[in-house]
Amino acid sequence: MDIEELQTFVEVADAGGVSPAALRLGISKSMVSRRLARLEAELGVQLLARTTRGAALTEAGTAFRDYAARACAEIDQARETILPAGELQGRLRIAAPLTFGPTHFAAVLADMARQHPKLQIQTHYSDRFVDLIAEGYDCAIRVGHLKDSNLIARYIGPIHGRLVASPDYIAAYGAPETPEDLAAHEALMQSTESWQFMNGDKIVTVHPQGRFKADNGAALIAAAVAGLGIGYLPDDLIQQHLASGALVPVMAKYPPRPAGIYVIRPPGQHPARKIRALTEMLIECFGQAPQLAEPER
């Protein structure tokens, strides 16, 4: 039984269709279909029912999927075991934020590909929250405060931000002095997140409101410069605007709770060597990290 056929079947099963699986694997749809046909012919059963919306697992396919996934994982682990020390191969599929990703993390990923010529690196840049397991990612690089989940997170380093607004906004509406004052202001947000601030050693959480939302940091910066509201934005992205005076800090007596950069992976006993290698390269670039992995929180 061909391992590529098993991997292709698992990808189609998880992605819900031939087209998204082909995109994940980086091969043509026709090649995916041929591999599936060979696997079904060898097993003598239909694993997938093709529909106009994609592909659904048959009863046999549902039973076979977990066995196939475990076999693929064990073969990948076996391959890593016999590789020369430091050498990596196979595919590493990463989800990274569109904000920060191309400017901060892309160079690290390119260096990793240069050091490991047998490794295939596929990175998807998006500020959308990606479901690693459902969408078939090996790991994700995330920035900010982590939510509760069963995923495993490794802290990479800190990332600092602040509240800012344009001089025109402050002239029109004033500047908040305390976290409670934010209730009277327009907040520029990604969705319905909460903001956390430090009052000495205490954390103060607020739930700001605003009419302008975007899932990308550059869009929120543009809105802040245009005077649409107050943004909680990373220092690295707003230095130029602070220097020019287009944005000014507000509520400096209550700094935001420090956020972090994390590598997130699905639960499992041990991370793959390629994920460990990526994590070590990011730590070297962005800061020191605790010795132990911690649950995503």
Describe the 3D structure.
This protein has three domains: 3-82, Arc Repressor Mutant, subunit A (Orthogonal Bundle), CATH 1.10.10.10; 90-159 and 260-295, D-Maltodextrin-Binding Protein, domain 2, CATH 3.40.190; 161-257, D-Maltodextrin-Binding Protein, domain 2 (3-Layer(aba) Sandwich), CATH 3.40.190. The strands form four sheets. Strands 4-3-5-14-6-15 form a six-stranded mixed β-sheet. It has a five-stranded mixed β-sheet with strand order 11-8-12-7-13. A two-stranded antiparallel ribbon has the order 1-2. Helices cover 40% and strands 24% of the residues. Mean pLDDT is 87; it is low at 289-297. α2 packs across α3 (29-43). A hairpin with a 2-residue loop joins β1 and β2 (54-57). It is of the alpha/beta class and 297 residues long.
Notable traits:
297 residues, alpha/beta, D-Maltodextrin-Binding Protein, domain 2, 3 domains, five-stranded mixed β-sheet, 40% helix, disordered C terminus
The first-level CATH class of the largest domain is given as: Alpha Beta
The CATH topology of the largest domain: D-Maltodextrin-Binding Protein, domain 2
Q: How many distinct beta strands?
A: 15
> What's the overall geometry?
elongated
Topology of this structure?
Layout (H helix, E strand, L loop, with lengths): L2 H13 L2 H8 L3 H15 L4 E4 L2 E4 L1 H24 L7 E7 L4 H15 L3 E7 L6 H4 L3 E6 L7 E8 L1 E5 L1 H7 L13 E3 L5 E5 L2 E5 L5 E2 L3 H9 L4 E5 H10 L3 E2 L9 E7 L7 H14 L7 E2 L2
Parallel strand pairs: 3-4, 3-5, 8-11, 8-12
Antiparallel strand pairs: 1-2, 5-14, 6-14, 6-15, 7-12, 7-13, 9-10
